[in-house]
Design brief:
Helix content is about 45%, strand content about 20%. It is an alpha+beta fold. The chain folds into three domains: about 5-175, Beta-Lactamase (2-Layer Sandwich); about 235-315; about 325-495, Heat Shock Protein 90 (2-Layer Sandwich), CATH 3.30.565.10. The strands form four sheets. Strands 4-3-8-6-5 form a five-stranded antiparallel β-sheet, covered by helices on one side. Strands 10-12-13-15-14 form a five-stranded mixed β-sheet.
């Protein structure tokens, strides 16, 4: 069965305190019981020692003057007592009449020794007994008490037994134990009330935290965050929970952005494909016209397929599910291969793609992702560059760093407009519906690839009309880092000179 934190705290604290209280009560009870019994025994011994003076030995035998201590002569309400005097041979010289001739069991203490025992009568009453061994006085009445000790007969050893009802002692002990139990119970009750109040006050930040979490609206990602004042003991929990909520918020934002962007970008080509097919069905057409329309539709479907693949790649890169590999390959050959595949498309606009790389530049990173980044940059340059201009891809090694530049004429006229091209689809910009204003996903995808591979993408307007995108790879000495990973744990972005 699961218990709440409050229940566990209360239960464990009460059990711990109760254990300490009970153990303390047992110890206190032992000390108090021993103390009260010791005081009771000392008083009993003092009385017995006084009574030994009432026993004398005369020429005609041992005499006692103990009748006044007989229970029959005690006032009403006095504690029951028994007296007995016997010699070492077992002969009784005095026995309280209340015993009716039944001798008290007594040990044989040495002279000056006192032995304590407990006597339980047939009716259940308990008596505390002291047995004192002594030598009787001889002719004590004729002696001068102020000058010399009373002479005693050292040849005769007697044992005086004094038994006293221990009901008063048991009553005092019972009263003390009752007070002790009531004290422990009252302490536990007060502790329980105080503990419940204290735990409630201590755990109130947790309840506030739970309330804050329950009030969060998953539909509003900007509200998925904690702002709760809690004690330092709970701060690590709040911090980790806040980090988790931030991750969830970013994930929700990514999903919402992905869905909105995908739907926004799909709307135009799907509408174009639909309208083309609807126009084609309005009347009978020739074979050549149908072939042209189908070719247009095929181009649109290829564009949709490319768009879908790009969006899925962006999703994988941003979520961290893409696992880049590492392999070495010449930079120039990679860029030239991509440029050759775009030569025909660029030729339609009268554009040329030129490459200018220092010899021996080798990258060590994920080749498919790097090829995808280069392809997007060159395709953007072909799509949005000025007709008849040149596109130049250039690789330069400077000290311990490598940069690859893609330069073309055309594009935005201001630096602010160039930086805005990082935004996916440039949402909210109505001009994106036109060819000149629609920069698609190319640069957003390259930026996401750079975050995975470890390179930085810079966008600038070098001079009015000249658009430059630079990929920067930072490393140590190119001769010594042929297998060294880049900072911040990036899985690639390496270069060397063979």
């Amino acid at each position: 069965m699961n218990h709440s934190l409050r229940q566990k705290l209360v239960l464990r604290t009460v059990l711990a305190v109760a254990t300490v209280q009970v153990l303390s009560g047992v110890v206190v009870n032992l000390f108090v019981t021993d103390g009260l019994r010791d005081r009771f025994d000392r008083r009993l011994l003092g009385r017995a020692e006084l009574l030994t003076a009432e026993v004398e030995i005369l020429p005609d035998g041992i005499t006692t003057d103990l009748e006044e201590f007989d229970p029959a002569n005690l006032p009403d309400g006095a504690e029951q007592r028994f007296l007995q005097v016997r010699d070492d041979a077992g002969n009784l010289h005095y026995l309280s009449t209340a015993r009716r001739g039944i001798a008290l069991p007594a040990p044989d203490p040495a002279v000056g020794e006192a032995i304590y025992t407990t006597l339980v009568l047939e009716d259940g009453r308990r008596f505390r007994c002291v047995h004192v061994g002594f030598h009787p006085e001889t002719d004590g009445e004729d002696a001068d008490p102020g000058s010399l000790p009373v002479p005693r007969d050292s040849t005769t050893t007697l044992v005086l037994t004094l038994a006293r009802d221990s009901a008063s002692l048991e009553r005092d002990l019972g009263y003390f134990r009752l007070l002790l139990i009531l004290g422990i119970a009252a302490t536990m009750l007060i502790l329980l009330v105080a503990l419940l109040a204290l735990i409630r006050a201590t755990l109130s930040p947790v309840e506030t935290l739970a309330t804050r979490i329950s009030e969060m609206d998953p539909g509003r990602p900007e509200m998925i965050t904690l702002d709760v004042d809690v004690p330092a003991d709970f701060q690590p929990i709040v911090t980790r929970l806040d980090e988790l909520l931030n991750k969830a918020r970013r994930a929700v934002e990514r999903e919402q952005t992905f869905t909105a962007d995908f739907a926004h970008e799909m709307r135009t080509p799907v509408a174009g494909l639909r309208s083309t097919l609807e126009v084609a069905l309005t009347r009978e057409r020739s074979k050549d016209e149908y072939s042209r329309i189908l070719t247009e539709c095929l181009g649109m479907s290829k564009g949709l397929h490319r768009l879908t693949e790009t969006m899925l790649m962006l999703r994988r890169l941003e979520s961290g599910s893409a696992q880049p590999g590492t392999e070495s390959f010449p930079v120039r050959e990679l860029v030239q291969t991509v440029a050759d595949t775009l030569k025909q498309t660029a030729g339609i606009k009268g554009m040329n793609i030129k490459t200018d790389f220092e010899p021996g530049l080798v990258l060590r990173t994920d080749q498919p992702l790097m090829e995808l980044a280069v392809r997007n940059l060159l395709e953007n340059a072909v799509a949005h560059g000025d007709a008849g201009s040149d596109i130049i891809a250039k690789g330069i090694r400077t000290g311990d760093s490598l940069r690859i530049e893609f330069r073309n004429a055309g594009g935005p006229e201001t630096q602010q407009g160039a930086v805005a091209l990082r935004d996916r689809f440039r949402r909210g910009d109505r001009s994106r519906e036109t060819v000149q204003g629609h920069y698609g996903l190319g640069l957003a995808l390259v930026d996401a690839i750079g975050q995975v591979l470890g390179f930085r993408m810079d966008i600038r307007i070098e001079v009015p009309g000249i658009f430059v995108v630079t990929l920067r790879f930072a490393n140590g000495s190119h001769e010594a880092v042929a297998g060294t990973r880049t900072p911040a744990g990036s899985p690639g972005s390496w270069f060397r000179s063979p």
